[in-house]
Specification:
Number of domains of chain B: 1
Order of helices and strands of chain B: EHEHEE
CATH architecture of chain B: Alpha-Beta Complex
Largest sheet of chain A: 6 strands, mixed
CATH topology of the largest domain in chain A: Barwin-like endoglucanases
Distance between the termini of chain A: 56 Å
Number of strands of chain A: 30
CATH architecture of the largest domain in chain A: Beta Barrel
Shape of chain B: globular
Number of domains of chain A: 5
Number of helices of chain B: 2
Number of helices of chain A: 27
Strand order of the largest sheet of chain B: 1-3-4-2
Strand content of chain B: 25-35%
Strand order of the largest sheet of chain A: 9-15-14-17-8-16
Oligomer: heterodimer
Helix content of chain A: 25-40%
CATH topology of chain B: Eukaryotic RPB6 RNA polymerase subunit
Shape of chain A: globular
CATH class of chain B: Alpha Beta
């Protein structure tokens, strides 16, 4: 089945087993008895923890076991003979299970013979049917659970005492302690045949191996000691722990051999158990973690593997890589969305391998001759060569002095590490990488400075801004990788997002304001202005001028139309649309009805709904119907034009933009006062019990709902009064209405009133006894005492208002912090669950075992990236197309 | 309460349970060929599944290895068809 998929080998099975003392001794290169590492001369002590048989960590030395050098010998295990057995902390649960389900006397499983055979038959059947090991393990669990119920052994008729686990490692039987030795003896008594039923394969292992008599000592390569500048040696945490074990082990042996009192021996035994436990897991609950002399907790075996910083997640699932760079990002509107500006420092460090062939030999030699950091006579950047690699793998560093000589030696078959040059394909990434657009392929453009540069239109997919954000860049190293990246990962291939089936790359902020000024009410531009605008583009053509009063002038809508495909037809409402009850369409008073006919913008204003990332209809249609090349060109051009227009006009915002006439301010005052009076009346009614209860709510709840409604309305009314005096001649309003930045709500909060502050969707009510702040009366319910802010941002808040506003603000901060943490973990779990699924070429979703998960991807087989906001086809477009054909 | 007789509920009639239909051997062969899916790669359904038990009332005993067609409502496709292999346990 899988041969066809290029999988050459498949793992048939894996077997896990407890390691026997004999196996450990066989594996061991040396026995370890001395708890010391190095002697006074700095040489490893024989049979010490750094014994030369355990491998080499110092260059120049050879391993005493295999004779290998540092990178040839991966190290060898040693072993410690424990004076008394100790329990392995990782197997405590398993030991408990076995002790409880077997007889304390005869060791048999606590089930009748027939029952055991019955279970074993069932297990055998499962195995024959190819049941998963997980199910077999579950059956074994079930069996031992069944056996645990018995109070008396059915084989030898002994009463079974209750066995308790005193965490972490002490077993008690009716309050008498079971020593590890006794535990081991009991496990030894379990007959092979019963082990099958308990989920252990006796052909491979024995349960008593879970109680350790011999401890494996990992090779020194696993726990290398480091030499500090001062010449002192610093040992690894594992070595420290092993020293502890060895010391106690030795004392325990001595005390036992001279026949010390039982009490002393037992104390030492417990201490050995403690050290053995913390050696495996230093976060065992119930015992204090072992500490370094400095007070730092030791990182032992489990800690090395577990969690985000553990071996799996840190070093195996993800790794540090070469040919990558990271620095601060900054904007560059002169780059195409497909490009990335790479500072010269980084370009000189990052390289692309270049194979020398008979065809490019001369070019290669020329390249090497330039040396490692060449530039033209005008000081412009030229790519050089850092290294030449011979076919035998030897690397020759190219320097200023040896460049000529190295160039002469170049031959076909050599590889050069060429520095980055314009046009190289690289991957560009910003964390957190939440979707595929977080890592896209760009073309290199070497730029001065120290930052990566990117076009502003690609900020949305990366979710980047320039307040100090850093990004990573990876240089692709093979032809295949570059080709694949160019086809699949290029920025222009991601103009449409699979997240919502619309554009995620498009105009933002000033681009939108700029295009608004270009198209709203169709302004006119003089020849000088048009030249100034178009000088930013690589074009020698102009849109057609119109005659007016004998002068040649250009209309804004014609200028925009210049960038539209000739056969584009669209109709939609702009963002500045006032949502009138009856839409006048082409006759719209606000110039908000956009109509494009045969690539000519006939009516309407270009704003958020036309060109923005997320909402832009025109960008969407061009990228979808005219291809990604056209999409890229369109975005590059209109953003450039927009910036030229807004630069020509000038654009700023000030507090004055929130200034409204005194009359309006008085109106707002009275609206707010009215509302407060109404609230007062509502409270009176509530106190008199005359409030008519809303369905499903009590008196108090009804009051709250009504008050919230009243105050909400007051803010909206205040906002409406304010906005009446805030027209499109106001830059702040232009930004809000066109969708460039901020919203009308933000403006009304600046000019009118902030309105009711809410905590968990309700008016603030807690803080002091039955009031929010100490200077209100108890049970006071009025607007002012429950977080209503009648001031505007422009006027400023009084201390009480400021306090309530801070409460609301803090809630927002906490919510976002909690939300990101939660959704991050949720996404991690989803990714781990779905990572081996893929869409097969027949459209089915399958996992790596080729099992069908879904018969048609998404059940409808639609690629969300090519969908129109999730729909397979855009019905409006289809209908318009048919209408046109009918004409 | 308590000892009330257990009424058999036909789960297939429940609004939240998708339509199940047993494929005839011929249909089974056809669909598998059309989908180019090996039987072992189909999603599974237990023989003890209530839906199968009700299908058995109509078709008689349904052997392990038969294929059931499941038609469920889908937000994206309207109605989505899936096929499931009847298996014994686990």
């Amino acid at each position: 089945m899988n041969q066809s998929k290029g999988i050459s080998k498949r793992i048939g099975s894996i077997q896990f087993a407890y390691m026997s003392p004999e196996e450990k001794r066989d594996l061991s290169a040396t026995k370890i008895i001395t708890p010391d590492t190095y002697d006074d001369d700095g040489f490893p002590i024989e049979m010490g923890l750094m014994d030369a048989h355990l491998g080499v960590i110092e260059p120049g030395l050879r391993c005493k076991t295999c004779g290998g050098r540092v990178d040839e010998c991966s190290g060898h295990f040693g072993h410690i003979e424990l004076a008394m057995p100790v329990i392995h902390i990782g197997y405590v649960k398993e030991i408990k299970k076995l002790l409880r389900s077997t007889c304390s006397e005869c060791g048999r499983i606590l089930l009748e013979e027939e029952k055991t055979t019955e279970y074993l038959d069932r297990m055998e059947e499962m195995r024959e049917m190819g049941g998963s090991p997980l199910d077999i393990r579950n059956l074994a669990k079930e069996i031992s659970k069944d056996a645990r119920k018995k109070g008396r052994c059915p084989h030898c008729n002994t009463d079974q005492p209750k066995i308790k686990l005193d965490k972490p490692t002490t077993f008690r039987e009716e309050n008498t302690k079971l020593t590890p030795k006794e535990v081991r003896a009991r496990l030894e008594r379990i007959p092979d045949n019963d082990l099958w039923a308990l989920g252990i394969n006796p052909d491979v292992t024995r349960p008593e191996y879970m109680v350790l008599k011999v401890l494996l000592v990992p090779p020194v390569t696993v726990r290398p000691s480091i030499t500090l500048e001062s010449g002192d040696r610093s040992e690894d945490d594992l070595t420290h722990k092993l020293v502890d074990i060895l010391r106690i082990n030795q004392r325990l042996r001595e005390n036992r051999d001279v026949g010390s009192p039982q009490l002393i021996v037992e104390d030492l035994w417990d201490l050995l158990q403690y050290h053995a436990t913390t050696y495996f897991d230093n976060q065992t609950s119930g015992i204090p973690p072992a500490r370094h002399r400095s007070g730092r907790t030791l990182k032992t075996l489990i800690q090395r593997l577990k969690g985000k910083e553990g071996r799996f997640r840190q070093n195996l699932s993800g790794k540090r890589v070469n040919f990558s760079a990271r620095t601060v990002i900054s904007p560059d509107p002169w780059l195409s969305i497909n490009e990335v500006g790479v500072p010269e420092r980084a370009s000189r460090e990052l390289t692309v391998p270049l194979k020398v062939t008979p065809m490019n030999l001369d070019y290669a030699k020329e390249l090497i001759k330039r040396g490692p950091s060449p530039s033209t006579e005008d000081g412009e950047y030229l790519p050089g060569v850092n290294y030449m690699i011979r076919p035998d793998g030897r690397r020759i560093k190219v320097t200023e002095t040896n460049a000529e000589a190295v160039a002469e030696k170049a031959e076909p078959g050599f590889t050069l590490e060429r520095e980055l040059k314009d046009g190289d394909i690289v991957l560009f990434n910003r964390q957190p990488s939440l979707h595929r657009m977080s890592m896209m392929a760009h073309e290199v453009k070497v730029v001065p400075g120290k930052t990566f540069r990117l076009n502003l239109a690609v900020c949305p997919p990366y979710n980047a801004d320039f307040d100090g954000d850093e990004m990573n860049l990876h240089v692709l190293q093979s032809e295949e990788a570059r080709a694949e990246a160019k086809v699949l990962m290029r920025v222009q291939e991601h103009i449409l997002s699979p997240r919502f089936g619309g554009p995620i790359i498009g105009a933002i902020q000033d681009h939108i304001s700029g295009l608004f000024f270009l198209t709203y009410d169709n302004p006119t531009f003089t020849r000088e202005e048009v030249v100034s605008i178009f000088s930013n583009l690589e074009t020698d053509r102009f849109p057609e001028p119109v005659e007016e009063d004998g002068n040649k002038i250009w209309k804004g809508k014609d200028i925009f139309s210049y960038f539209l495909p000739d056969d584009l037809n669209m109709e939609f409402k702009a963002s500045i649309c006032q949502k009138c009850e009856t839409c006048d369409k082409e006759e719209c008073q606000n110039d908000a009805y956009v109509k494009i006919e045969d690539g000519q913008l006939e009516h309407g204003t270009i704003d958020e709904n036309a060109v923005s990332a997320f909402a832009g209809e025109v960008v969407d249609k061009i990228a979808r119907d005219y291809g990604t090349d056209a999409g890229r060109k369109f975005i590059d051009q209109i953003t450039t034009i927009a910036l030229a227009v807004i630069t020509l006009r000038g654009f700023t915002t000030t507090i004055e933009d929130e200034e409204i006439p005194d009359k309006a301010e008085n109106q707002i005052e009275s609206v707010l006062t009215d509302a407060e009076n109404k609230v007062r009346n509502l409270i009176e009614a509530y106190k008199d019990g005359e409030l008519e209860e809303l369905p499903g709510r009590g008196q108090k709840e009804t009051l709250e709902v009504k008050v919230m409604k009243e105050l909400g309305k007051a803010r909206d009314d205040a906002g409406k009064i304010a906005s009446k005096h805030l027209g499109l001649s106001n830059n702040a309003v232009v930004m809000a209405r066109t969708g460039a930045r901020a919203s009308m709500l933000n403006l009304t909060q600046m000019a009118g009133a902030l309105g009711q502050q809410a905590i968990r969707g309700e008016r603030p009510s807690r803080g002091y006894e039955e009031r929010t702040l100490s200077h209100f009366k108890r049970k006071e319910l009025g607007a002012e005492s429950r977080g209503f802010v009648r001031s505007s941002y422009k006027d400023g808040l009084n201390p009480v208002e400021y306090f309530f506003h801070s409460m609301g603000g803090r809630e927002g901060l906490v919510d976002t912090a909690v939300r990101t943490a939660r959704s991050g973990y949720m996404q991690r779990r989803l990714i781990n669950a779905l990572e081996d699924l893929m869409v097969a070429d027949d459209g089915t979703v399958r996992n790596t075992a080729d099992k069908v998960i879904q018969f048609d991807y998404g059940e409808d087989g639609i690629d969300p990236m090519r969908s129109k906001r999730g729909d397979a086809v855009n019905m409006d477009d289809v209908i318009r197309e048919f209408k046109k054909r009918g004409e | 309460m308590g000892s009330a007789e257990k009424e058999e509920i036909n789960v297939l009639k429940h609004g939240l349970v998708p339509d199940h239909r047993l494929l005839s051997r011929e249909e089974e062969k056809e669909t598998l060929e059309e989908l180019d899916v090996g039987k072992e790669n189909l999603p599974k359904i237990l023989k003890s599944d209530p839906a199968i038990k009700h299908l058995e009332k109509v078709h008689g005993d349904i052997n392990v290895g038969r294929v059931v067609e499941v038609k469920r409502k889908s937000r994206t496709a309207g109605i989505a068809t899936a096929y499931r292999l009847v298996v014994k346990r686990e």
